[in-house]
Amino acid sequence: MLLMATGCGTAPAPTETHFELPRGGVETALTDRDVDTFLKLLQRLPGGQAPEFAECDLPTLNGGPQLPQEVEELRQAMRLALLPERQVQHWQSSASLQTAFERLHVDPQAFAALTLRVSCAWSALTIPVETRTIETRRRLDLQIIELTRRLERETGTGWECSQKRQVLEELVALSEFLRLIESVPEQSLQTVAAHQTALRDVLPPSTLGQISAGRSERGAIQPTAWHR
Predict the structure, then answer these.
(1) What is the distance between the alpha carbons of residues 227 and 177, in angstroms, rounded to a whole number?
(2) What is the value of pTM for the model shown?
(3) Where does the record place the region Disordered (predicted)?
(4) Of 23, 58, 158, 184, which is least surrounded by CB within 10 A?
């Protein structure tokens, strides 16, 4: 009776699992524990999948003498689009997601960083080894420089000029994508490969994880977060 009076004889109230998320950027190696934590957390989020990355409005290449500057601005916009802080701002529009983060005591920015790490490693795993090399990106950047120089003198609005600028935009997107996955450690690739069955079920098409969803009509690979 004394135990019952003090509450010791009642079943403890269920408590929500707390998640201690790892810290680090894409260049930080993923461990099995990191991916396990990621997968278990997703089970408790709305829909049981990773939230979609925020899309962004990228600057347009207009051509002319200012084209080199426009290309650099496009690169910077693509890099900023994938910052964890930006994803957190996008997720704030989802009341259910915010409620889940609060209930689980999860730092949204830490979760965004972990999602990016997992997605980038998954993306790198889907790209042939010979493609994701520094030399490949260097050759691509030379093509970008050459095409930029040719287009600097063109300010037309016709179909042909528009198509050339679109090609340049796609080359820049591919260059930035390769730059991103270059920083993924080999250990991260091995880790996501060991969990690929589970990851395939929870990474939605608009994350970096499903690269095929980011292919343009010309076949250039682009993360969907970079789509206009």
Answers:
(1) 13
(2) 0.78
(3) 209-228
(4) 158
Residues contacting residue 2 through CB under 8 Å, at least 6 positions apart: none
Q: What is the pLDDT along the chain (228 residues), one digit of tens a residue?
A: 233 333 344 444 344 556 788 888 999 999 999 999 999 999 999 988 888 888 778 888 988 889 999 999 999 999 998 899 999 999 999 999 999 999 999 999 999 999 999 999 998 888 888 887 888 999 999 999 999 998 887 666 667 778 888 999 999 999 999 999 999 999 999 999 999 999 988 875 544 433 333 333 333 334 444 544
CA distances from residue 20 to 14, 27, 36, 40, 227 in whole angstroms, order as listed = 19, 20, 12, 12, 32
Q: Between vectors from CA 179 to CA 195 and to CA 145, what angle results, nearest 5°?
A: 150
Q: Which residues contact 52 (CB under 8 A, 6 or more apart)?
A: 204, 206, 207
172 close to 144: Cβ distance less than 8 angstroms: yes
Cβ(202)–Cβ(48) under 8 Å?
yes
Structural domain spans, the chain: 32-43+61-203
Question: Do 206 and 52 form a contact (C-beta atoms < 8 A)?
Answer: yes
Looking at the DSSP bridge assignments, the partners of residue 25 are none
Give dist(CA 103, CA 18) in Å, integer.
9
